[in-house]
Amino acid sequence: MSMQSTMNNPQGAYAIFPTIPSVKDLTEVLYGGKRFGNHVDEVWPNLFIGDMQTAKDKYNLKRLGITHILNAAEGTWNNVDTGAGYYGDMDVVYYGVEAEDVATFDLSQHFSSAARFIEETLSNPQNKLLVHCVMGRSRSATLFLAYLMICESMTVVDAIEHVKRRRRIIPNWGFLKQLRELDMQLLQQRDSTEPR
């Protein structure tokens, strides 16, 4: 079965990969994690997930040694309106993703490009990356979870388990559904490339 056919018929993909958890199961996995919240947490070596307050605090960004910023809530309406110009007096590389934190928004269209940015940033051990959105819980967490799945070969459950031990995250159910679909795609790709 091709990847395209599973995307058009997701039920077919579920039959192929019955071990992939439902969105409800993923929600239950999420709520077993860290109960309190910080403005910023290091969730991977040299990678921090944070909120709008962290993103706008240039002093703290310098103190943390942040060299790269991925804003998962770029834009002016109900987002973090910083942009590359906001950091003009700092030596940082900025990457912005215009995304709404609503279940109907297709954040998966940014999974590959965000994962590439994260991977390129972390390829230099001197770099430190802040991935943020308004609260640092949904959009930013979802993009980092996708990175772990795409670049670190984690399953969606493994990725969530890893991050939730370090930061309280709450991707909306639409983003969880998109991560679940990514998990199916990646499992299918790995299955098709393994020797039989």
TrEMBL record:
Keywords: Cytoplasm, Hydrolase, Nucleus, Protein phosphatase. It catalyses: O-phospho-L-threonyl-[protein] + H2O = L-threonyl-[protein] + phosphate; O-phospho-L-tyrosyl-[protein] + H2O = L-tyrosyl-[protein] + phosphate; O-phospho-L-seryl-[protein] + H2O = L-seryl-[protein] + phosphate. GO terms for molecular function: MAP kinase phosphatase activity; protein serine/threonine phosphatase activity; protein tyrosine phosphatase activity; protein tyrosine/serine/threonine phosphatase activity. Its EC number is 3.1.3.16, 3.1.3.48. The active site is at C133 (phosphocysteine intermediate). InterPro entries: Atypical_DUSP_subfamA (IPR020405), Dual-sp_phosphatase_cat-dom (IPR000340), Prot-tyrosine_phosphatase-like (IPR029021), Tyr_Pase_AS (IPR016130), Tyr_Pase_dom (IPR000387), TYR_PHOSPHATASE_DUAL_dom (IPR020422). Residues 38-188 form the Tyrosine-protein phosphatase domain. It is found in: Cytoplasm; Nucleus. GO terms for cellular component: cytoplasm; nucleus. Residues 109-167 form the Tyrosine specific protein phosphatases domain. Transmembrane segments: none annotated. GO terms for biological process: negative regulation of MAPK cascade. Its main location: cytoplasm. Belongs to the protein-tyrosine phosphatase family. Non-receptor class dual specificity subfamily. Dual specificity phosphatase able to dephosphorylate phosphotyrosine, phosphoserine and phosphothreonine residues within the same substrate, with a preference for phosphotyrosine as a substrate. Involved in the modulation of AMPK and MAPK1/2 signaling pathways. This is Dual specificity protein phosphatase. It comes from Scophthalmus maximus.
